[in-house]
Structure formats: structure tokens, C-alpha cells
Amino acid sequence: MTGHGTHRSSLSGRFSHDPDLDFEIRTVLGGAFSGAADVGEALAAVADVGTDHRAWFRAWDALGDRLAATGESCAARGHRVSAASAYLRAATYLGVAVNAVSGLEDDAPLLPTFRKHRAAWDRWVDLVDLDVERFPIPYEGTTLPGYFFRAPGVDPAARGPVVVAVNGSDGSLPALWSAVVSGAVRRGYHALVFDGPGQQSVLFEHGVPFRPDFEAVLTPVLDAVVARADVDPDRVALYGISQAGYWVTRALAFEHRPAAAVVDPGVVDVATSWEREVPKSLLKLLDKGDDHAFDRDMALGLRLSKGAARTWRFRARPYGVEGYAATLREVRRYDASDVAAQVTTPLLVTSPEDEQFWPGQPERLAGLVPGATLVTFSDDEGASGHCEPLGRALVEQRVLDWLDERLAR
Questions:
Q1: Which among 206, 230, 88 has a CA at the least distance from the CA of 144?
Q2: Please, what sign has the CA dihedral across residues 279, 280, 281, 284?
Q3: pLDDT score, position 360
Q4: Which pLDDT band, with edges at 50, 70 and 90, does 105 fall under?
Q5: How many CA atoms lie within 13 A of 162 on its CB side?
Q6: What residues pair up with 134 in beta bridges, in sequence order?
Q7: For a Cys-Cys bond, which of 21, 134, 151, 243 suits 16, CB 3.0-4.6 Å?
Q8: Element holding 90 (H helix, E strand)
């Protein structure tokens, strides 16, 4: 959910003068509602960082390491609840450190930082007082790593509803826990999280890029989910956060089994979040097919801004193509405008005030999908900005109440 360019927040006050860092802090703080962060320790860690990206990475990396060590110490002394809490927070903070590598001159820390992050998540999975199963999903001759959460207190012999959560372009699994899974399991839903093509372990450890035809991913995921004896195939819901607002919409145009779906926010055309950062004169070159001139001028511009060059490299990595023009052409394929009308699944589209990455697209998507429900979130409610980072309790209430009404027997 990060790295999409400069933006502002209308909520009073700033946690950082750098708008992207400010957004990351808000996202972390929002995780406190589900136990995935603690406000004081997070703010203390970045209090003296300023806008130094190396210091930003070191702060989150060190905080994650410290919480992981706390978790190990608590576990060794038999304090399982404390250990689980520390490991979940460690996974959150190390997830921020993974994305912070985009601001470094050298991305060598990426893989070791990611592996620390995932190790902390796995320790939490093993320690938390929940029934969590590692659930590999068959996919094109290999498997996608998944984690299946069984709702507490539900008869294991009964078939229950499930929420399948789809991540955004650079979101972590703890982010999905905070976004929807925590609330869903408390309401009696099972839940599934997974890494898809271009996401987290599938990208960093296996080099598999994104794909625009997400139905090719969602269909095998649903095949695996509905085959479970504890899942009611008629009560499967989807939740897609950030760029998954596109992926879920695209997939639902072809995959009609889900009983309901939520996109937070609605996304029609992914490329708009890229193109607003590119001068119009360069976009004209791209539209004319002059890729050589586009690449030449982009290279010149990015040589003058090393930070922007590093951000472009990090954002382009999951698309799996080389060259500036080729990358942007690939991103333009992530467009649901021609297929959104084929969606038959009841769809809830969130629209936060001051959506900074895809402004206006939630309303556009709601107009394209027959019968879609648009729900707005405002600054006055403390829930403005992309994915409503500081309003997760309100989002949970509105989104899961809506799902309850559609998936209830």
C-alpha cells in the first residue's frame, strides 16, 4: 500500500513531514486495534527519524528485532500470550522495514529482512490462541503459501462461512490480519490469507510476478477453499485491499462463486496511480509508441532524483518487465473498465475521503458494477485516506455488518 507517490492527509497533524512516511505510520497505528502494533512503541521508534530513509529503515528493522527477541524471551519463560503479542507486532514492524528497502541505495537487505518478517509471523501463528493451519494452495504446478484461520467456538464438523482476503501490491500478512481477518474470526467467519503472484514470498523468494488476469489465481484459491469440509461453499466472501480492489473486481468478472465481496477501495485502472507522477509530455511519447524517447527522457529525469529512481525500481519489480515504457504499458493492462459490468457478485465498494492513490475510482467502479453498494468514509469520522488507516474499527463495523447481512443463513 506504500510507494505510490506524494500525497496529503486531511486529518489534523502529521506524524512525518514526508507524506509517504506519514501514511506508513498511520497504517501501523491502525493496526493497534487488532493487536498488530502498539502506539507508543511505534511512535517512539520513529520520533527522531525525520525524512532520512536510511534511518527510517533502521528504526523499523531495530524495533522488529527487539520485539522478536521479546517474543522469544517470553516464550522461553512460558508466557505464551505475551510471546504471541510480541511476535505479531514484530511481524508488523519488520513488514514496514521490508517496504522501507525501497528508499535505500542498495536492496541487499530486502530478502533477509523479509525472512525475519515472515519468521516472526510464523512464530505468532504457532503461539497465538487461535486455530491457524498452514494451507498450501495448488497453483500452476506449484503452491501458493496460505494460512487458514478457523473461527473460534465453531463446531469443526460444521460448514461455516469464510472470508478470503486478497492483499495489495506490497501489503504484508499482518496487514491483512488488521484489515479484516481479526474482525472476521471474532464474528464466526473462517478466514484465508495467502501470497499470490508478485506478492511477498512468491515475489521475493521465487521471482513470480503479478498477473492482470487475477481470475487465474482466484479460481484455484477458491477450488482449494470450497473443497474443505469446514467451509460452506455457498458462503464464501472476498475482501480485497488497496490494489486488490482491481484484482478482486477483475476476477469476479469471470469467477462467480463468491456470495459477496468487498473492495477497499474500489480500483478500476491501476495505471492512474503511476501516470500522475509522469510528466504529460512523456505520456504523449508513450501514447505515440515512441518507447525509445520515453525511456531516454525517463532515465534522464530519474538520474536527477535518486529517490524517485529507487521508488520506481521497487514498484516496477513485481510487474516482471524491463524498461520504463514496457513497465508502464504492463501496468496499463491492469484495467477492469471493460469487464466490471460482468460482475454478478454483490459488491461493497469503499470510498474514503481524500483517497490519494485512486481518487474518484471507487465511484466509477460502483457505477460500472451492477447493483454495487458504495460506502463512504470521511475525515470527520477519522477514517479518511487510502484504506482508512486510522479508522479500522469503523471500517470493520460497516464492512462486516454488510457481509453478515448477506452471508447469514
A1: 206
A2: positive
A3: 97
A4: confident
A5: 28
A6: 147
A7: 21
A8: helix 80-100
Q: What is the pLDDT of residue 387?
A: 96
List, in sequence order, every beta strand (DSSP E) within 210-258.
231-241
SS3 95: helix
pTM: 0.94
Q: Look at residue 273 in the predicted model and tell me its pLDDT.
A: 93
For residue 21, the number of C-alpha atoms closer than 13 Å in the C-beta half-sphere is 27
- Contact criterion met (CB below 8 Å) for 395 and 383: yes
Q: Are 378 and 16 in contact (CB under 8 A)?
A: no
Q: Span 158-164, mean pLDDT?
A: 96
φ/ψ of 146, rounded to 5, equals -130, 160
What secondary structure letter does DSSP report for 340?
G
pLDDT at 5: 42
- Coil, helix or strand at residue 1: coil
Q: Would you call the peptide bond into 258 cis, given omega within 30 degrees of 0 as the criterion? A: no
Cα distances (Å, whole numbers) of residue 224 to 112, 230, 245, 378, 409: 30, 12, 22, 38, 23
Nearest alpha carbon to residue 1 among 402, 407, 366, 385? 385
Q: Is the pLDDT of residue 8 over 50?
A: no
For 74, phi then psi, to 5°, come to -65, -40
Q: How confident is the model at residue 409 (pLDDT cuts 50, 70, 90)?
A: low
Give the residue from 232, 268, 401, 243 showing the smallest Cα distance to 343: 268
- Mean pLDDT in the chain? 94
Task: Quote the CA–CA distance of 329 and 166 in Å, as a whole number.
Answer: 24
Rounded to whole angstroms, how far apart are CA atoms 25 and 96?
9
Q: Distance between CA atoms of 54 and 83, rounded to whole angstroms? A: 29
| Sheet with 131-134, edge to edge strand ranges | 131-134, 146-150, 190-194, 160-166, 231-241, 260-264, 347-352, 373-377
C-alpha cell at 235: 458462503
pLDDT in tens, 360-403: 999 999 999 999 999 999 999 999 999 999 999 999 999 999 99
